[in-house]
Design brief:
206 residues; alpha/beta; three-stranded parallel beta sheet; two-stranded antiparallel ribbon; 6 helices; 5 strands
């Protein structure tokens, strides 16, 4: 079975540890959308600690809305605010200046569906990191496995979308802009690792 992950907004490092070395990964689009998960939020590091960026979504009139049907809301000029937050946090990182022109257009484009926005960002990270992993959207929903082996190359990793879940993974420290001030913060958005490590990111995912 191919590794199976939830769709996520600039996913945490744990997602990419699953992707590392996998030629193909399934991305779930037929599960029920849940708030307060990485599906529409990411966590970055700032001078004052962590900051959570949340993509606003259109409230559904029906319970159990599927991830594939979640629409992005344009409330609050969030695209501009998110990009400014990311730029402010990482403008002094070693590789932000090399990658900012790759990310900015994704924030300037108005995606209708959350899953399309997530896929665009995840695909861009894979491309810039030189990871030859193909993302395949699921055709149908499969019930959650009860006891996934989180360090295996195959399996059901959809639980990683819940920030409260214990990933069962170890995260080797790497350079972070504010590490001297805040200490090393593990499992942040993959943007943190990419902007700080650049092409060496893939080495730290093994």
């Amino acid at each position: 079975m191919l590794p199976l992950l939830s769709s996520a907004y600039l996913p945490p490092v744990s997602f990419f540890k699953v992707m590392a070395g996998a030629p193909q990964v399934l991305i779930e689009r037929n599960d029920s959308y849940h708030k307060q998960t990485y599906r529409n939020r990411c966590v970055i590091a700032t001078a004052d600690g962590t900051q959570t960026l949340t993509v606003p979504v259109v409230k559904s009139d029906f319970p159990g809305q599927l991830m594939r049907d979640v629409r992005i809301s344009d409330h609050g000029n969030w695209r501009h605010l998110h990009w400014n937050a990311i730029a402010s946090a990482y403008m002094n990182s070693p590789f932000f200046m090399y990658y900012e022109d790759d990310f900015r257009p994704i924030y300037e484009k108005r995606y209708e569906f959350l899953i399309d926005f997530n896929m665009a960002l995840t695909g861009k990270v894979l491309e810039l990191a030189g990871m030859n992993t193909s993302l395949i959207l699921t055709d149908e929903f499969r019930p959650m496995e009860q006891n996934p082996v989180l360090n295996a190359g195959n399996g059901d990793f959809r639980r990683l979308a819940d920030p409260s879940e214990d990933t069962g993974m170890t995260f080797a420290p790497y350079y972070q802009v504010f590490r001297r001030r805040n200490g090393f913060i593990p499992n942040l958005s993959i943007a943190d690792m990419l902007f700080n490590l650049g092409p060496e990111m893939i080495i730290h995912l093994s």
